[in-house]
Design brief:
The complex is a heterodimer. Helices cover about 30% and strands about 40% of the residues of chain A. Chain A contains 3 helices and 9 strands. In chain A, about 35% of the residues are buried. By secondary structure, chain B is an all-beta fold. In chain B, the strands form 2 sheets. Chain B has a 4-stranded antiparallel β-sheet, with no helix packed on it. The two termini of chain B are about 25 Å apart. The chains are: A alpha+beta, B mainly beta. The interface between A and B is large, with 44 and 40 residues. Strand 6 of chain A pairs antiparallel with strand 4 of chain B, so a sheet runs across the interface.
Chain lengths: ~160, ~100
């Protein structure tokens, strides 16, 4: 009887330790993140609002941002987009799809030797421009490319 | 807990080419189920990648990223054998961390 009680207590203690470890693990990545999820920018319903949320209003056009995306996407649910910035000291890249319900699709910050280029696959609701914002030395630069979508990937 | 990520990290000259496939439904919150009810949004919100303990990529993503997202990026100044650790967190608080070694 007593032995069983010991075992139970031991078991409870171990579970507690695991819970504490998980809690510690949960805290770690959020500390590592440079910024919280940018709700204002991601939940903006138009391009201007998203740009404002990103603090990228009045971005200058740049030919140094390279956007590789198909001219015609047959499936809007998976549009491969490859973005690279040749602007020196590029710190972050944001990808926006103008006509999606929420234009801002992704935002990446680069550090410690990461090259300012990233490949993602996006959903596109309809034919639209893809805008890419690159930030370097506190300035914003923008480039755009149109992708024609034959079957939309948002909604059902 | 979600399925493990597939991470491929290979040196190409002096840069490491890292690709990661995450397993996630990425619901937009726009889609309706057959009963006409909106399927609630469920998507990854943030991803972080570290190489040899140093943060290299910090991404925030919205629902417009495709289901089972794939990300590719390149890192300079690392070497074969360095450990790559990638973590994602979604809007429901789920998270997953996986690691790989640069080959």
């Amino acid at each position: 009887m007593d032995a069983l009680r010991r075992t139970l207590l031991k078991g409870a203690g171990a579970t507690g330790a695991i819970a504490a470890a998980i809690a510690a693990g949960v805290l770690k990545p959020s500390q590592a993140l440079a910024a919280e999820w940018n709700k204002n920018a991601f939940e903006a319903r138009d391009l201007a609002g998203a740009l404002k949320g990103l603090g990228a209003g009045g971005a200058a056009d740049s030919k140094d941002i390279v956007i590789k995306a198909p001219d015609i996407a047959e499936n809007g649910a998976v549009v491969p987009v490859d973005v690279a910035s040749n602007i020196p000291n590029t710190q972050s890249i944001s990808v926006l799809v103008d006509k999606n319900p929420f234009p801002l699709a992704a935002h990446f910050d680069f550090a410690n030797g990461a090259l300012p280029q990233v490949a993602v696959r996006l959903k596109m609701g309809q034919t639209s421009n893809i805008h890419v914002i690159a930030k370097a030395d506190g300035k914003s630069y923008v480039a755009a490319k149109e992708v024609k979508v034959t079957v939309g990937g948002c909604g059902g | 807990m979600a399925d493990p990520m597939k991470i491929r990290a290979q040196m190409q000259g002096d840069t490491a080419d890292i690709r990661v496939l995450m397993s996630h439904p990425m619901e937009t919150g726009q889609r309706k189920d057959p009963q006409g009810k909106v399927v609630p949004a469920h998507h990854i919100q943030s991803i972080t990648a570290t190489v040899a303990g140093k943060l290299v990529l910090d991404g925030q993503i919205g629902a417009a990223v495709s289901r089972n997202p794939v990300f590719g990026f390149k890192v300079k100044g690392v070497k074969a054998g360095d450990k790559v650790v990638i973590t994602w967190v979604d809007n429901k608080g789920d998270k997953r961390t996986d690691e790989a070694t640069i080959g």
